[in-house]
Amino acid sequence: MPDKIRISVSHNKGTRLFAISQRRKKLVILSLVLGVSSFALSGFGLHYFYQQQEVAKIAIAELQNKNNELNQLIVDNNNSNHELTQQLEAKENELLVISQRVDDVESVLGLQEISEEDSSLAEKTLEQRLDVAAIDSAVRATMFRLIPNDTPLHYTRESSSFGRRTNPISGKRQRHLGIDLTCKRGTEIYAPADGVVELARSSNKGYGNLLKVQHSFGFMTMYAHLQKFKVRSGQFVKKGELIATCGNSGNSTGPHLHYEVRFLGRVLNPRSFMDWTPEKFDSLFEKERSVKWTPLVDVINNVVKLQLKLTQKPTVEQVEAINTAKAEDESSQQLTQ
């Protein structure tokens, strides 16, 4: 066997001979073997990583499916929580009505629910129920001060009215206990009448940040999905005072105010009170006939008369009677000394 490998290369200038020794021959063969092995290993590695990538893709797809299922469960649970929260609020209001002894208060003021026997009351004219013309300006001013009226904020539109509606979250038909007013986040909300803050509760569920204000003669207003409170529980507020700002807390699809008006726990249409103005003084009495306004106006009239008596100057006879009483008191003191 020759010790060398001879390679001849021919070109235009002649032929050149190259000689490769046996040692170099082994190195060349070894290099070729190593190259082929490296290529094979690289191919195997690439195939292995490709298979692992496919397995990872399948695992990711399964995780995404599970994530979608969990998200759907969360949505379903949120809808259920929203319904349960509303039911809980309704039960709390029922308990509040019971605790306030509604029947006793209504029997005193003559403010019972309309029964079938006197359902014909709805057909009577306003003059038969309440003599609006006889109500003087002082009584009217007092009513607008103490009973909720006008709009509590500057809103964009009425997104949901009072009564039956399709719930935007659950998609079910149910009774809407108030009115939804869309507004920009942070829009200021003002008290529609004098009152005292009964509740200022922070929450990220149901009604969200919730505020309740008790007004005179059994009226109450409620404000839900608020951003911030500007008052605290137990604080007295005046009509037109800043009480909160509009937000999107709780179960809400966008910034809005859920506004309710109640009388002795019973929900009334807030629109009737929002439209009640001095120019439309009789509108509230025509729309909210479940409230017997006549005895309520009589109570307010008596309060106004008492205020007028307290602010009037005493008559000559009253001054003389006071002086006589003082003189008799001084005489009795001197006799005892």
TrEMBL record:
Keywords: Coiled coil, Membrane, Signal, Transmembrane, Transmembrane helix. SUPFAM superfamilies: Duplicated hybrid motif (SSF51261). One of its GO terms (molecular function) is metalloendopeptidase activity. The keyword DNA-binding does not apply. The chain crosses the membrane at residues 27-50. Residues 53-101 form a coiled coil. Residues 175-270 form the M23ase beta-sheet core domain. Pfam families: Peptidase_M23 (PF01551). It comes from the Bacteria. This is Peptidase M23. It comes from Aliivibrio fischeri.
